Amino acid sequence: MYATDIPAPFYEEAIQRGVLYLVMQGEFDGSGQFGCGVSLADLDNDDDPDLVCVGASNGRTGLFVNDGAGHFTRVITAGLPDLNEASGVTAADYDGDGDLDLHFTCWHMPDLLYRNDSSGETLLFTDVTSEAGMSGAKGPGTGAAWSDFDLDGDLDLYVANRTGSESNWTPNQFWLNHGDGTFTDIAAQHGLDDLFATMQPVWFDYDLDGDPDLYLSTDKGGSNGSSNRLFRNDLGQFTEVSDESRANVAFDSMGVGLGDLDSNGYLDLYCTNIPAGNAMLMNEGDGTFKDMTQETETGSFATGWGAHFFDFDNDADDDLYVCNMSDGLNRLYVNDREFPLTDMAPYCGVQCLGDSYCMAIGDVDLDGDLDIVVQNHLELIKLFINTEGEKRNWVKFKVRGVDKNKFAVGTSLTATVDGHETLHEITAGSSYKSSNDYIQHFGLGEAEQLEELRVRFTRTGTRVFSQIPANETWTILPMALLGDVDEDGDVDPTDLSSFIGRLDAPDFQKGWEVLDFDGNFRLEESDLDAFLEVYEGPLEDCDGDGIIDAVQIARGDSEDADLDGRIDDCDQDPPVGDLDGDGIVDGADLTQLLAWWDTSWPPGDLDMDGTIDGSDLLILLGNWSN
């Protein structure tokens, strides 16, 4: 494609969009922390990514709230700290309450954990470092990453220290989450208290056995026998397989990109380095990696830091962005499903003169393509708005998990478009000292739907979806959460009423995913049958004919719905607006409608336009019972 066609550029629009943040800390030489992290994450649960930056001269944390159109407002009074030695930032729901908390690594200072105690539109974070048991160690902190390594339903945290920096020999830390808000460092217990100059940990399931494995990016590789290290996780027990896997590159490894570049169903590693050249390590699927740097022509040959795979042009394969220092421009390697890749950064306007360290990826303006936040030393934060991706179709997924892993960290998604597969894994902490938006994005090219999506949840099995409509963000649920439309913890008559008028509807609406048991993006009687298997409400033979009438009632059939030869109350649809299933439309139904306001839950979406709003209120009031 790009041999003749130049992609449309990104436009740097940070200031125009309300992001004004100057990074002065994180210098390369002396006592600096080698860049400062950035995070794109939905901190207020309004379905758009907000931005967190660190590294200002006064230590003030930058918190910028997204308005849903990619314009930001800075929030000053949210309880976040001034950090004069901030190094990295990750967003993860450590306490399982459904919102994202923030963890900060610091340089020769204790790390900090801030719980998200926000309410509505008011953001508030509380320092819980001490009560979580994380106080004390003052290591040269760099990157961090979360995972449910022991598959107990909550997220644990691995923190990298560049051990040996300025004679500080604090080892890496591995924080076990006890599920009650407290943690214990178990690094030594598992042989993971690495004393090398670790820059970034990466959790990913390299062998597809269902649990996350740990990869450590090591600076000054080759010194004292150090190299990048891979630890295989076997149900919570770790075995180092660095050498046998051939993932043991020994150079000045900083950031790590993670993606399935060759679409073989296994995640590859891209390790940044000094100008001697980065390494593209392709996962062979047999427990080993092969160095394909020369074949892919992705060596970069500059001092590299952050790197991330993402489909910037929505052509259904992942490209690669690399942050470099001033000895080389940033790279945007375009993947055209054949090697070598082509660096198009100068044509796209993302080459970034200066010292680039950290990056985060997300669709900040919700237009269906992925934008880039870049942190340069001694410069303002950069926000590159994508214009190439809008030429093609896309689909995005908000994946939900069970227990305390509400954001489904560790879940893998494999999308198939025109027979071509792309694998993603949900991570919490990525690239270099940073974290990306949790929403999973797939380009579709010219396809108007995604052929197939295989989702392997941690602990709860695999679901397969098909014929997914393009240009929409869909919610992906594990089987355990299906049927509970109102999210009250059970599947009851209110949830059953959600099927009324929706079975066999020609257009599948956003919000109906919770009822789509077979994942084909249609509501059919097979979905209703599956629903009834988990239904906890009454199923009555209301006319005494020996037939349970739930199917007919849910279908909304008129006339003789139960085929008993009579037209009676059992044949009638529930009154429109009867949200609690008591047979009348009254104040209780109005209260329920208002509780669902501005959502898309099917029972309250009376006009089926995808949003519960004033038109639904008018319908309910028009059917008010005397």
Description:
The protein is mostly beta strands and 626 residues long. The chain is 8% helix and 30% strand. It has a four-stranded antiparallel beta sheet, with no helix packed on it. Helix 7 (587-595) runs antiparallel to helix 8. The longest helix has 10 residues, at 525-534. Mean pLDDT is 92; it is low at 557-569.
Describe how the helices and strands are arranged.
Blueprint: E1 11-12, E2 22-23, E3 38-41, E4 50-53, E5 62-66, E6 72-74, E7 86-92, E8 101-106, E9 112-116, E10 125-127, E11 141-147, E12 156-161, E13 173-177, E14 183-185, E15 197-204, E16 213-219, E17 229-234, E18 237-240, H1 242-245, E19 256-259, E20 268-271, E21 279-283, E22 289-291, H2 293-296, E23 304-310, E24 319-324, E25 331-334, E26 342-343, H3 345-348, E27 356-362, E28 371-376, E29 379-380, E30 382-385, E31 393-399, E32 412-417, E33 420-425, E34 440-445, E35 449-457, E36 461-469, E37 473-476, H4 493-496, H5 525-534, H6 550-555, H7 587-595, H8 614-622
Parallel strand pairs: 31-37
Antiparallel strand pairs: 1-30, 2-29, 3-4, 4-5, 5-6, 7-8, 8-9, 9-10, 11-12, 12-13, 13-14, 15-16, 16-17, 17-18, 19-20, 20-21, 21-22, 23-24, 24-25, 25-26, 27-28, 28-30, 31-34, 32-33, 32-35, 35-36
Oligomerization category of the chains in this entry: single chain
From the alpha carbons, calculate the radius of gyration and give it in angstroms: 26 Å
What strand order characterises the main sheet?
A: 1-30-28-27
Q: If helices are DSSP runs of H or I spanning 4 or more residues, what is the number of helices? A: 8
Q: Report the portion of residues in β strands.
A: 25-35%
Low-confidence stretches: 557-569
The secondary-structure class comes to: mainly beta
Overall body shape: globular
The overall pLDDT, averaged over residues, is 92
Total number of β-strand segments? Answer: 37
- How far is the N terminus from the C terminus? 66 Å
Helix content: under 10%
Largest sheet: 4 strands, antiparallel
